[in-house]
Amino acid sequence: MIKLKRVVIAGTIRSDVGLPKGIELLLQGNKAIDAVEETIKIVEDNLDDWTVGTGGLANLLGEVELDASMMDGTTLKAGAVAGVRKHKNPISIARKVLELTPHVLLVGEFADLFADVIGFPQSELLTENAKAIYNDFLKKKKIETYPYDNEKTMKLKERYFKSFKKMVENNDLMSWYEKYAKEKHGTVNVIGRDIRGNICSGVSTSGLSFKFPGRAGDSPLIGAGNYADSRYGAATCVGVGEIAIRLSLARIAVYELSKGKSVEEAAICAIKMIKDLEPKAGTLSILVMDKEGNVASAANFRDYQFWIADSLDPIPRKKECIFVDLKEKEDIGVGYHR
User: Fold this and answer.
1) Residue 321 CA to chain centroid, in angstroms?
2) Do β-strands 66-72 and 199-205 pair in parallel, antiparallel, or remain unpaired?
3) Rounded to whole angstroms, how far apart are CA atoms 229 and 159?
4) Which residues catalyse the reaction (predicted)?
5) What whole-number distance in Å separates Cα of residue 191 and Cα of residue 189?
6) What's the CA gap between 338 and 321, in Å, rounded?
7) For 319, which of 91, 102, 147, 338 is 20 to 30 Å away at the CA?
8) What is the C-alpha to C-alpha distance for residues 59 and 313, in angstroms, rounded to an integer?
């Protein structure tokens, strides 16, 4: 007889719109992979979020490119896609790569072709709102008001535009891009544990807004931005993807769990690895869950949170990330994380 485990689901700050559905599925006895996928799909479909799925901000050519990955911690199978341009839920395509193919990662037009073949409908990813932000940004003019705008959308646009405009005006193109690439990131990460103790982790993003076309960060790379092993736990990353790639950061955190470290210790150890890189490499946070469902998050910037819900308290609640100061008497900064 299988002993039922405590169910838990946790996600980064953008996951709050989807977590109620995720914990509902887990409490009903569904698999962790189902809860993680459905949670992330809701975030991908949230038009108020301009860093994930439909409505994500474009690359420098004005095209939206989506990346995602999933990993099943029990089988160690993983699926990922990068550079998806024609389908709105890359997390679901990534799951199909995991389940239907012998591969881990499909990229670009062939990721879209795979989605076509297995029956996913095509969708327009660039919304009018995101297109307007892109056009306004390129022309370096003030934010325009469009017929579909309201007070909420205007506040969001002003926040994005002011930051982008300031960086462009104060730097030449390449120095601006280098600085921008270290500060402007957004991703949704979700980790779930089901009643059987199986753990699954998922990541989805539209990547670095106004990025070089074809750029893929850590989100679709297993071991970098996403890793799960039900024997020990799982970890996912948000921030400068190149940091997580260079350090294989998610895998390092799970390795620390395998050595008996707590979730807090594993998260802090991972963030401290950034010290091995050049000064001001950028900002990054990591979300860690152990095999018992304990969760913690750490970051090298202040004032960042994550969400968690479980069978003891199914209403998603916000918790603070641990700030890891990598330089004595000097803050790393707040990055650009909602």
Assistant:
1) 15
2) antiparallel
3) 38
4) 187 (nucleophile)
5) 7
6) 13
7) 91
8) 40
Compute how many other C-beta atoms are within 10 angstroms of the C-beta atom of residue 183.
20
pLDDT at 189 over 80: yes
For 52-78, what is each residue's pLDDT tens digit?
A: 777 777 777 778 899 999 999 999 999
pLDDT per position as a tens digit, 289-305: 999 999 999 999 999 99
Q: What is the pLDDT of residue 150?
A: 80
Question: According to CATH, what is the number of the domain 8-122+183-323?
Answer: 3.60.20.30
Q: Is 75 a catalytic residue?
A: no
**Closest to 326 (Cα-Cα) out of 274, 281, 249, 248:** 274
Question: Which one from 39, 51, 187, 283 is the annotated catalytic residue?
Answer: 187
The letter for the amino acid at 156 is: L
User: CB of 68 within 8 A of CB of 203?
Assistant: yes
